[in-house]
Each structure stands twice: as C-alpha cells, then as structure tokens.
Backbone:
C-alpha cells in the first residue's frame, strides 16, 4: 500500500497534526498545535482523532508512515509528513519544549 506523503512546507494551514513519537521525543520539541499519541497507543486511542484528514509526523518519517498506512487501512484519511520533525525543524517551523530547555528534535 502506498502512503500519501507531503513535504512539511506543503502542509495545509489549520490541518490536524498527529505526532506519534515517544514521550521523551515529544517533550524535547514538538509543533505547538500537534496532538500527541505515541505510535504504540494509536490503535487504542484512534477515536480521539477527527473524522477528516490527519497529517502524521514522527522524528524522520518511518513511524508516521506506518501510522498513516494503518489509519488509511481502517478507512481514515491520513498523510505522512516526509522527513518528520527533523524536516519541520530545518524548515524553521515553530517548536515548543516541555523540558524547560530550548526545543530541539533529537
């Protein structure tokens, strides 16, 4: 199955962004408006997602591609963010941290 993928700079304004990274990765730096559901919890928490398109991100794009593939398989509309949060950071997009330190993507 081919997973739809876009570049971080092509993500539509106001789109629902799902971050599937682990808790420590999320805390170090994430998109301000993202929703965090670690990949291992996604199946149990899928009902927390909206009915429309979901843009999925992880660190570099592998986990989010798996998440997007699964979401599309169950009938949801999901798009992978190519290059993940590393591309987000390189594109100069805003990041917030929950660690008390400047945000970064490891």
Residues:
């Amino acid at each position: 199955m081919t997973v739809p993928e876009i570049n971080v700079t092509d993500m539509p304004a106001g789109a629902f962004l799902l971050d599937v990274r682990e808790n420590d990765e999320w805390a170090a730096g994430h998109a301000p408006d993202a929703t965090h559901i670690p990949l291992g919890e996604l199946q149990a928490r899928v009902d927390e997602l909206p009915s429309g398109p979901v843009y999925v991100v992880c660190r570099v794009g592998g986990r989010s591609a798996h998440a997007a593939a699964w979401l599309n398989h169950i009938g949801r509309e999901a798009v992978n963010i190519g290059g993940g949060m590393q591309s987000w950071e390189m594109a100069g997009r805003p990041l917030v941290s929950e660690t008390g330190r400047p945000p970064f993507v490891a």
The longest strand covers residues 78-82. The chain has one domain: 5-90. The beta strands are 5-7, 16-19, 35-36, 54-57, 78-82.
